[in-house]
Amino acid sequence: MRPTSGAPVTAPAVRAHKGGPPLVMVTAYDAPTARIADEAGADVVLVGDSVAMVVLGYDDTLQVTVADMAHHVAAVARARPRALVVADLPWLSYHVSPEDTVRNAGALVRAGASAVKLEGGRRRLPAVRAILDAEIPVMGHLGLTPQSVHALGGYRVQGRQVDTAGALVDDAVALAEAGCFALVLECVPAEVAALVTAGVDVPTIGIGAGPHCDGQVLVLHDLLGLEDRIVGRFVRRYASLKADAVTAVSAFAADVRAGRFPSEDESYRLADDVAAALDRPVPRTA
Ligand code: KIV
Hints:
Helix content is 40%, strand content 13%. By secondary structure, it is an alpha/beta fold.
């Protein structure tokens, strides 16, 4: 859906893309990853709270704050991507009161996001409405919602039974009707994602939700193979950057230890007369 004119992607444009060619969303957490995502033509860059695990070394997403998220959103925004920058509202930033919710969403917009994402269904409608009322576009997130890991009893596929699948569809319809411009569906059976996609007039963006969504999202570090620890079956690795990086740093270490780095070409030299005046001749290396 990327416009060829160079105009930035907007939330209304994403919303209007329902039924068009699949949307592409990837995570980015800093300027270099935002540039990678943008130059590759992603439509949406998500500054996900997955930053907690992927970049900051925490065990779950519950540890990041609005300040942490704003720090990463600002770094992404400085890359000036054409892709729409969506920021995750972290856990507890939209659970306390509508005032608190709007203030936190506003902090992420001031940091550079053009929209925010929050997790949960009908229970989150007051938060969604408050943010929309402040003119900030909202992306919903249903299915496996990692901020609810303790309540869900772990990271599990959601909506596997008739009642839970039905509730997921009802949640999606409610969020779309409230005004969310798109919905992430995480770890739900493909049949349920297809039902949701057919049942709402906003794009669904799947992660572990099968092929019948209006778009797909992956965590950038997973698809690049920069993260090589736990991966879901829904992750396809398009590169092995962690292995490549270990090989590269090992080669650097070997060169340093063997005296092969730096070479003459990789060093700065004084002019001969200055070196002579200093009376400190330094031997040239190979
Ligand atoms: O934080 C994140 O990376 C996400 C994606 C998994 C959609 O929410």
